[in-house]
């Protein structure tokens, strides 16, 4: 059974929220690709929709949107996800994971795609702490 750490970004105010999920909630993410939406109820954000923006596997290798499936690939990269060159024109062979979420995925990055009726703080119970 897979368990994930889901990091949800709120594009409106720049805050991030981290959730540990397993069981049925983790199954909602299984087989999804980068760019697809998932019901926010999986992380306790009922009425919200989350868009998967990336992630990494158990060894810390990043997921890339341009690599199909769940397999590991060695790519010659000039920049982008997984490699930041130090000088212009530098290339490096980097091992990355495909764009589909699988049992090998450990962290899923997502952002809020559509909002529900309640605020995030109300749903997570943080509204009382702010007052």
From TrEMBL:
<feature type="region of interest" description="Disordered">
    <location>
        <begin position="107"/>
        <end position="131"/>
    </location>
</feature>
<keyword id="KW-0687">Ribonucleoprotein</keyword>
<dbReference type="GO" id="GO:0006412">
    <property type="term" value="P:translation"/>
</dbReference>
<dbReference type="InterPro" id="IPR001377">
    <property type="entry name" value="Ribosomal_eS6"/>
</dbReference>
<dbReference type="GO" id="GO:1990904">
    <property type="term" value="C:ribonucleoprotein complex"/>
</dbReference>
<dbReference type="GO" id="GO:0005840">
    <property type="term" value="C:ribosome"/>
</dbReference>
<dbReference type="Pfam" id="PF01092">
    <property type="entry name" value="Ribosomal_S6e"/>
</dbReference>
<feature type="compositionally biased region" description="Acidic residues">
    <location>
        <begin position="119"/>
        <end position="131"/>
    </location>
</feature>
<protein>
    <recommendedName>
        <fullName>Small ribosomal subunit protein eS6</fullName>
    </recommendedName>
</protein>
<comment type="similarity">
    <text>Belongs to the eukaryotic ribosomal protein eS6 family.</text>
</comment>
<dbReference type="InterPro" id="IPR018282">
    <property type="entry name" value="Ribosomal_eS6_CS"/>
</dbReference>
<dbReference type="GO" id="GO:0003735">
    <property type="term" value="F:structural constituent of ribosome"/>
</dbReference>
<dbReference type="InterPro" id="IPR020924">
    <property type="entry name" value="Ribosomal_eS6_arc"/>
</dbReference>
<keyword id="KW-0689">Ribosomal protein</keyword>
């Amino acid at each position: 059974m897979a368990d994930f750490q889901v990091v949800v970004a709120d594009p409106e105010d720049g805050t991030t929220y981290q959730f540990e999920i397993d069981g049925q909630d983790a199954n909602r993410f299984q087989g999804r690709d980068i760019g697809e939406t998932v019901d926010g109820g999986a992380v306790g954000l009922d009425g919200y929709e989350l868009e998967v923006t990336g992630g990494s596997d158990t060894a810390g290798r990043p997921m890339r949107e341009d690599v199909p499936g769940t397999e590991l690939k060695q790519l010659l990269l000039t920049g982008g996800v997984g490699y930041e060159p130090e000088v212009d024109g530098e290339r490096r062979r980097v091992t990355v994971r495909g764009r589909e979420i699988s049992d090998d995925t450990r962290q899923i990055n997502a952002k809020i795609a559509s909002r529900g009726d309640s605020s995030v703080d109300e749903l997570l119970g943080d509204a009382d702490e702010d007052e």
